[in-house]
UniProtKB/TrEMBL annotation, chain A:
Its main location: membrane. The chain crosses the membrane at residues 31-53, 101-122, 134-157, 163-182, 208-233, 270-292. It is found in: Cell membrane. Residues 97-292 form the ABC transmembrane type-1 domain. It comes from Catenulispora pinistramenti. It is a multi-pass membrane protein. Keywords: Cell membrane, Membrane, Transmembrane, Transmembrane helix, Transport. This is Carbohydrate ABC transporter permease. The keyword Cell membrane applies. It comes from the Bacteria. SUPFAM superfamilies: MetI-like (SSF161098). CDD domains: TM_PBP2.
TrEMBL record, chain B:
The lineage of its organism: Bacteria, Bacillati, Actinomycetota, Actinomycetes, Catenulisporales. Keywords: Signal. Gene3D superfamilies: Periplasmic binding protein-like II. PANTHER family: ARABINOSE-BINDING PROTEIN-RELATED, BLR3389 PROTEIN. InterPro entries: Bact_solute-bd_prot1, SBP. Residues 1-46 form the signal peptide. This is Extracellular solute-binding protein. Pfam families: SBP_bac_1.
Amino acid sequence: MKRSTRTPLKQRPDDGAVPVRLYGLRRGTTTFLTLVCAAFAVFILAPLVWLLINATKTQAGVYAGPGFWFSKPFRLFQNLADLGKDISGAGVYLHWMQNTLVYAVAGAIGATALSALAGYGFSRFRFRGANSLFYLVMATLLVPITALALPLFLVYAKVGLVNSIWGMILPSMVSPVGIYLMRTFIDASVPQDMIAAARIDGAGELRIFFRIALPLCLPGLVTVLLLSVVAIWNNYFLPLIIFSRNDLYPLTVGLSSLSQAAETGTQAQLVPVLIAGGLVTVVPLIVLFLFLERYFRGGALRGSLTG
Amino acid sequence: MRTSHGAGGSARRAFPGPGGRRLVGLTAAALVAVSAAACSSSPSTAGPGAASGGSASGAAGGSGCAANATPLTFWGWSAGYDLVVKEFNKTHPDVCVKLQNAGATTAEYVKLNDALKAGDGAPDVAQLEYFEVPSFEITHNLVDLSQYGVASSRADIAPAAWSQVSQGSALYAMPVDLGPLALYYNSKQFSAAGLTVPTTWDQFATAADKLHAADANAAITNFDPESTQDVLALMQQYGAFPFTYSGGTSVGINFTGAAQTAFANYWQGLIDKKEVTTASDFSPAQWANLDSGANAARLSPAWGPVGMQLSIKKTIGDWRAAPMPQAQAGQNLAGNWGGSTLAVVKGSKHAKQAAEFAQWFGGSADAWKILSGPVAGAFPGYVPLLNSPDFQNTTLPISSDAKSNAVFADAAQHLTQTQWPPIMTAALTQWTSTFAGVTKGTETLPQAFQTFQKQLSDYAKAQGFTVTAS
């Protein structure tokens, strides 16, 4: 507080940011680095621009004209409208969108709750086998999911999870990465002393968890929630194995079946609709990521609590 | 099970740190963002389709059935099948077919295999492509339809289709559509280059020379070495089909016989002289080549023109169909690429009704009215339709007023009989990697044939088959 009156620089909202020239980098170096970044930006953004442009075309237009410029006729709205119809026999895009939302929201909330509970347990309780258990959780990250495909399906068939939305939601609620994140986060942000003090004051363990630990690790919770949404949104393999009904497909599997239909030649103009579908699929994630990014700046880099 | 690998990469960015004042607000904001995205992207008010069991999109079949109707599950992926199922349910009130799309081709076969292994979740009727029928038959997973009188449709089905799904008197699937090949050429470009339509492969090569000599950018057609079914259809038409199989544990695999080697040398010669292109089938490059004159002809299956006319612009109206060039003058042999059958899956509780449905689907005028209609656009293996003047006189804008269907229908009657081995799943998987070098120019087609002969024979032997080279 004292310093802020002395240096006007600190009053800017992004306090802590230092102008690049003050690092003593030569102009040539910064130009070079900027160019490298710009090249990467083009690399990342070009496909999105392509989606946007080609979603406005007819099928012949997609194949004929230059990929990065518009061609007549302008069909964007027709292509978008087709997302609400079953034009290929593969299913209706909007149903897939709804399914993905259901899976992502339910799965991510579950993943966040379970990760918080498990992370808190690993972080703040000493119990027999704690380390081994934690390593076991981490070890599951090493098993490639493709190796589990058939056994997983057989187990699912036994317990009736094939073609059930729970077959998608339940596994999505278990996130080793989330548990790891929450453990690390709680390690750093929920002081052991504060818990001890609460215990002395007579608070029960549940009360400590809900009233003290959870509010302190809110940034961690939001991180896990958003990461889980993204992971479920993009999950292709699990729904591919467990669903054989196209009205249960999420966007990933639905779009791939639409793509297969487009390849095998039908009477409908599937390719531009497929492109429009791809465009609509990434928009919610982009919106989500804008929040994710802002959150990382706001939460993670804030100074440490003196405990 | 974890959610995905995606979270792992981003995890590094989440530095542990304490909470701040704005965090509650941010959490709320993020949640609002999620739900806002939800609202903006799905304006439909139907509610979550998944939670309700997807009744809304279940319009594919289930709706409007009588309560006591026999329920049948049908896995299929082709466009328009939902309309055919609807018609069946309307005209057969005692049976209620529910269409489910379990993925197209291989995706469906994998799921069907899994469901059969699990002993649960398999459909009553499944769409199978011709080449996949023996693979399911050899594991005794298909019901012999002859016991339900389906063989009575024999006279109505193109013989080449029937022979692919039957062994002796046993019938393992009901043929539906076909994809006989024809030479589909750009008539304006042909006459501008002074080419006559070739009737033999020798003439075809001469025409390719002439075209390429006049314009170095022009190739007579495209040959995609990595497209298994395309190459196999051309081999069939050339009299060089590499497989023989008549049930049991003995398969014939022959990619290195005289006819096969002649076939490989023929196409490698055209590739070397750059007189054919090697773009991937259905790739943007292929469509662009057809529209720009870089390809003057397409060796097209009967279902090809429909998709092609949506994918090209400038040359609409210029394309004509002619019979395939022949290996020997005077022959009239055709090849087949694609087409499906309906098989009744063993374990079905209602095999009789399922067989009745399959027979109606592939062998009735009612079904074909819809199958050959504007949505489905399937090419019939159903002879009464193949022979009908209405069908043969149908025109498409891509061919102006020319009657391509007549050419394709004639080809359907002249298909050589093929027998698929029960190892096609492995063959399809292996093919792409073995033949990729031909596209790149790092190996020749005859070399790839030799390699593939060994790979597939080894695989078949490992699976317990006796392999003969004929």
